[in-house]
């Protein structure tokens, strides 16, 4: 609380040029997630302190942590007339939490804003500093808050309950690039392209990679899983960390049964067993279709898998440190987007989902088949 107060005071005390908290200052990454906001105020007539319009608005948007705001919508009351509009923005955040944004609104045109973040970006204050498309001068201010506050994972957090899904009658069983045994309970062919659902059993997992088409959810069924993810956003498939951009630091979290994690597209990520024992995890990929990638790359070399990955819209590293500078334990979950996952899965028939992955491994073991174990031990795409 004291640190937050100092950050806020920086707005009204510019002589604090070297505060003690400067070394852990804000960046664009702190302004990330889904936000709700409201504003109110007036427009004054040019050249005179006369009110020409009263304005108020409520809305929401998504900030990507890389200087862009998308999916913005707001309802504006302009002198009592209600106007619905959409908007996008770009923004930049300074170390002290202050920043600026430039927005384009579908009805009212361009606006500029000054803003300040607090509580690690969970809340922000802003003033509208310019509205070039209007005749009046704005005296408008507002407050915004994350719709789902940033969460730090802990063992006492309530576990997510994965909904019951009816698996396809003949599920596809295939090995992933890191040796995972995937049983695809749902594919693009049976979900009208909306998602694929794979039940993955593994000790080692895929090398760090970046999806450009799919968002993913990871739900830990059993075991302990290390989930690793980067903060930076890579919207261009030709711009890759460690290739033509600086390598990235990834953040690790040890996730146990009942943990749901959202892995948005454009972010570097990977996973593996945390303790070397078998773990099981449901992997939801939206939209669907990557089940075909695994079918086309099983048993191929890391170089071949990496080349084929580009055809499926993602960057797959050839060795573990190719894209990665380091890994720390500062993983933070912004939002697991559980409501979006539940909506995505809601159209599927309801039934208790069998643990297909572990069932397949058990059958293979009972039959004396050691293909999975051998493949995991010498898998070509494994971490080095």
Index terms:
single chain; 384 residues; mainly beta; Porin; Jelly Rolls; 2 domains; 8-stranded antiparallel barrel; 6-stranded antiparallel beta sheet; 6 helices; 14% helix; 40% strand
What report would you give on this structure?
It is a single chain. The protein is mainly beta and about 375 residues long. It folds into two domains: about 1-145, Porin, CATH 2.40.160; about 170-380, Sandwich (Jelly Rolls). The chain has helices spanning about 1-10, 290-295, 300-310, 340-345, 355-365, 370-380; strands spanning about 30-45, 50-65, 70-80, 80-95, 100-105, 110-120, 125-130, 135-145, 170-175, 180-185, 195-200, 210, 215-220, 225-230, 250-255, 260-265, 270-275, 280-285, 315, 325-330. The strands form three sheets. It has an eight-stranded antiparallel β-barrel. A six-stranded antiparallel beta sheet has the order 9-10-11-18-13-16. Strands 19-12-17-14-15-20 form a six-stranded mixed beta sheet. The two termini are about 45 Å apart.
Short description:
The chain has 384 residues and is mainly beta.
Structural classification: mainly beta
Sketch the topology as an H/E string, one letter per element.
HEEEEEEEEEEEEEEEEEEHHEEHHH
Give a short account of the largest sheet. Answer: 8 strands, antiparallel, barrel
CATH class of the largest domain: Mainly Beta
**Percentage of β-strand residues:** 35-45%
The order of strands across the largest sheet is: 1-2-3-4-5-6-7-8
């Amino acid at each position: 609380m004291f640190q937050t107060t100092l950050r806020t005071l920086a707005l009204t005390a510019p002589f604090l040029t070297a505060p003690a908290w400067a070394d852990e200052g804000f960046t664009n990454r702190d302004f990330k997630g889904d936000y709700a906001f409201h504003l109110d105020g007036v427009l004054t007539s040019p050249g005179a302190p006369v009110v020409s319009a009263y304005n108020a608005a409520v809305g929401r948007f998504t900030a990507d942590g890389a200087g862009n705001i998308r999916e913005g919508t707001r309802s504006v009351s302009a002198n009592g007339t209600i106007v619905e509009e959409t908007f996008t923005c770009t923004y930049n955040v300074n170390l002290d939490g202050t920043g600026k944004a430039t927005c384009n609104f579908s009805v009212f045109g361009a606006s500029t804003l000054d803003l300040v973040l607090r509580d690690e970006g969970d809340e922000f204050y802003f003033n509208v500093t310019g509205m070039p498309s209007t005749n009046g001068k704005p005296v408008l201010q507002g407050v915004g808050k994350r719709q789902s506050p940033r969460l730090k994972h802990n063992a006492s957090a309530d576990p997510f309950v994965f909904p019951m899904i009816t698996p396809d009658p003949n599920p596809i069983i295939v090995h992933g690039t890191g040796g995972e045994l995937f049983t695809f309970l749902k594919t693009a062919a049976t979900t009208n392209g909306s998602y694929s659902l794979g039940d993955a059993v593994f000790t080692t997992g895929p090398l760090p990679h970046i999806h450009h088409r799919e968002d993913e959810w990871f739900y830990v069924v059993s075991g302990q899983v290390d989930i690793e993810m980067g903060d930076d956003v890579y919207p261009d498939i030709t711009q890759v960390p460690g290739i033509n951009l600086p390598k990235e630091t990834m953040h690790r979290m040890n996730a146990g049964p009942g943990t749901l994690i959202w892995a948005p597209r454009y972010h570097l990520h990977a996973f593996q067993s945390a303790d070397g024992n078998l773990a099981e995890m449901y992997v939801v990929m939206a939209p669907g279709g990557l089940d075909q990638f695994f079918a086309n790359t099983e048993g191929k070399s890391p170089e071949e898998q990496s080349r084929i990955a580009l055809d499926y819209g993602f960057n797959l590293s050839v060795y573990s440190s190719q894209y990665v500078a380091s890994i720390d334990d500062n993983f933070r979950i912004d939002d697991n987007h559980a409501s979006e996952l539940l909506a995505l899965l809601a159209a599927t028939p309801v039934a208790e989902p069998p643990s297909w992955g572990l069932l397949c491994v058990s059958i293979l073991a009972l039959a004396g088949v050691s293909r999975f174990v051998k493949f995991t031990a010498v898998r070509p795409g494994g971490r080095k």
